[in-house]
Write a structure and sequence with these properties.
The protein is an alpha+beta fold. It contains 18 helices and 30 strands. The protein has three domains: 178 residues, Threonyl-trna Synthetase, Chain A, domain 2 (Threonyl-tRNA Synthetase, Chain A, domain 2, 2-Layer Sandwich), CATH 3.30.980; 283 residues, Bira Bifunctional Protein, Domain 2 (BirA Bifunctional Protein, domain 2), CATH 3.30.930.10; 95 residues, Anticodon-binding domain (Rossmann fold), CATH 3.40.50.800. The strands form seven sheets. Strands 11, 16, 17, 18, 19, 20, 21, 22 and 25 form a nine-stranded mixed beta sheet that branches. Strands 1, 2, 3, 7 and 8 form a five-stranded antiparallel beta sheet that branches. The protein has a five-stranded mixed beta sheet with strand order 27-26-28-29-30, with helices on both faces. It binds one RNA strand through strand 7, strand 8, helix 6, strand 18 and strand 22.
RNA sequence: GCCGACCUAGCUCAACGGCAGAGCAACGGUAUCGUAAACCGUAGGUUGUGGGUUCAAGUCCCACGGUCGGCUCCA
């Protein structure tokens, strides 16, 4: 059987279970209104409007009812109804009425309902041939959540019940084990444990970076600076507070002001920096620019604050204060394609170093946008052409563009397989017009510049979160906050250990070393160094002191090798150089 | 913000509505040790905050805060 069919089978199974869930819910709470219930990645869900609130405590009861109903079901029979007949069946259900109206094309076409046992529901199909195929132990209800009808916050919030479902009981158990495993990689747990960062209730969503975390943070920025300086980027630093009128000019006032931290000083309204672009525009416009200056690449990593809704905060994935590895590139229209290629090359370099998997998404014109549709269409086709010419695979994210222009997003997955937007490369014809950003062309005429907004990491915060989960906290040597731990076997060898440390420091390279001089057993020191995920553990005692060597143990390996210090130093420096 | 869950010592967790406890970490001491936890002792708490019910609240109820899983939004 082909993979596609397997996937369809699983999806049919999940969709069938969604019907079963609805049947159980209606049986237990007859006046519940049903909305929709599709199959998803790891199971299914169904949205309901309950007359009384339910909670996760009710799930076992519903699950039990599902298992009671299941044996009474066999095939899912398809029945065609006219729109009027279907509407009659769902008189008191505004959600179904809306769907019938839509599916019947305003009453012109018939709709289908599917019946299994005593339960029937409006549905376009996609079920198992017989409910007898369903293993009653292969599914599990696991969560209750609110979800807006048709995904719009203007609509009422329904109650969504999520279920996990697989072909067999074993597949379900394996998946649950996978979730438990993912929990161990969770950066929200590992970060504070490894003393990288922490949060405090006085600053929700705003991380405190601890010394070790700052090392990782700065190492990433250092690498970023080197790579960008070499490619002609020039770094700027700009104010964190600007008067409201800056954001009125940029268009952010209209689209973003309610998400910004704002304050009033001497009767004047200020906004705390939530994005870098307006100030980059100001710097570009601060003197007259020639076509010879383009592409002009300004980079910056100033701290940004966004007053995100409390319910959206999520560890380092979604924070209220963060830094982007930002740059604004001012180009002529002809230079757009070439500059995008240069950016894709950077993306490739950065992401391949970490061995991270990513995908591209082209975000098109959103509902709220600046400028005219013609310019937007031009920008969107330009991006499509560039992506296709560079043979970059991408999906289209309808209406996912920035309000000032379409964008190419880099997406990555966390330990729980949730997708996050990381880097983004945005094409902007609007802000240059609003800021009147011009350059003088070959003929001495004024032309409006085009701006490319781009980040590679995305935000340092989110990127570090992904790294922690990707490496389960054991960061590659070049990024590790502590690269080498030196552990004397007893305090008789502290002096030799200090000698080793000072020789390592003498390598003319900034090795990050920790000496553990505590009066603890060597077993305990090793255990703690392993838990801190330090890549290199050096043990020194009688043997090493007399032979002027060290014993090396690498993180996660119990194997040890005894060798002279210079050999180790060579290995370390090579690895760091290669960013292994 | 909305729906749901959770919050006990620095960490991981216990405690039927009836005297707030253990292990690890910290601190003091003993042991000077060979690759993932030596031993003995000391200290550590307004049970997230504020109300309420009760003879009695960590436990029940309400509000607020924070966190997590979703929805919407977003780097």
């Amino acid at each position: 059987m082909s993979k596609v069919n397997d996937a369809n089978n699983l999806s049919n199974l999940r969709h069938s279970l969604a019907h079963l869930l609805a049947a159980a819910v209606v049986d237990l709470w007859p006046d519940t209104r049903r909305a929709i219930g599709p199959a998803i990645d790891d199971g299914f869900y169904f949205d309901f409007e309950f007359s009384e609130p339910i909670s996760e405590k009710d799930l076992p009861k519903i699950e039990k009812k599902m298992r009671q109903i299941l044996p009474t079901w066999d095939e899912f029979s398809r029945i065609e109804l006219s729109a009027t007949e279907a509407k009659n069946e769902h008189k008191n259900n505004p959600y179904k009425l809306e769907l019938i109206e839509q599916f019947s094309d305003g009453g012109r076409k018939k709709v289908t309902v599917y019946q299994s046992g005593k339960y029937r529901d409006l549905c376009r199909g996609g079920h198992v041939a017989s409910a007898k195929e369903i293993d009653p132990q292969s599914f599990k209800l696991h969560r209750v959540a609110g979800a807006y009808w048709r995904g719009s916050e203007k609509n009422p919030m329904l109650t969504r019940i999520y279920g996990l479902a697989f072909e067999t009981k074993k597949d379900l158990e394996d998946y649950l084990a996978l979730l438990a495993e993912a929990e161990k990689r969770d950066h929200k747990k590992l970060g504070p444990k490894l003393e990288l960062f922490m949060f405090h209730p006085t600053a929700p969503g705003m991380p405190y970076w601890l010394p070790k975390g700052v090392t990782v943070y700065n190492t990433l920025i250092k690498f970023w600076r080197e790579e960008h300086r070499a490619r002609g980027y020039q770094e700027i630093v700009s104010p964190l507070l600007n008067k409201k009128n800056l954001f009125v000019t940029s268009g952010h006032f209209e689209h973003f002001w309610q998400d910004m931290f704002t304050l009033k000083v001497e009767g004047e309204e200020y906004g705390l920096k939530a994005m870098n672009c307006p100030n980059a525009m100001i710097v570009f416009g601060s003197k007259s620019r020639s076509y010879r200056d383009l592409p002009l690449r300004f980079s910056d990593t100033d701290t940004l604050h966004r007053n995100e809704l409390s319910g959206t905060l999520n560890g380092l994935f979604r924070v209220r204060s963060f830094r982007q590895d930002d740059a604004h590139i001012f180009v002529t229209e002809e230079q757009i394609g070439q500059e995008y290629e240069r950016i894709f090359e950077i993306v490739d370099k950065f992401y391949s170093i970490f061995g991270l998997e990513y995908s591209f998404r082209l975000g098109t014109r959103p509902e709220k946008f600046l400028g005219d549709e013609k310019t937007w269409d031009l920008a969107e086709t330009t991006l499509q052409k560039i992506l296709k010419a560079g043979k970059h695979k991408f999906v289209i994210g309808e209406k996912e563009g920035a309000f000032y222009g379409p964008k190419v997003d880099i997406l990555m997955k966390d330990a729980l397989n949730r997708e996050w937007q990381m880097g983004t490369i945005q094409l902007d014809f609007q802000q240059p017009k609003r800021f009147k950003l011009e350059y003088i062309d070959q003929k001495g005429k004024k032309q409006t510049a085009v701006v490319i907004h781009r980040v590679i990491y995305g935000s340092l915060e989110r990127f570090i979160a992904i790294l922690i989960e990707h490496f389960a906290g054991a960061l590659p040597l070049w990024l590790s906050p502590v690269q080498v731990a030196v552990l004397p076997i007893s305090d008789k060898f502290n002096d030799y250990a200090k000698e080793v440390v000072s020789e390592l420091r003498n390598t003319n390279y900034e090795l990050r070393i920790e000496l553990d001089e505590r009066n603890e057993s060597i077993g305990k020191k090793i255990r703690e160094a392993e838990l801190q995920k330090i890549p290199y553990i050096l043990v020194v005692g009688e043997k090493e002191q007399s032979s002027r060597t060290i014993s090396v143990r690498q993180h996660g390996e119990s194997k040890q090798t005894q060798l002279p210090l210079p050999e180790l130093v060579k290995e370390l420096l090579e690895k760091i150089q290669k960013k292994n």
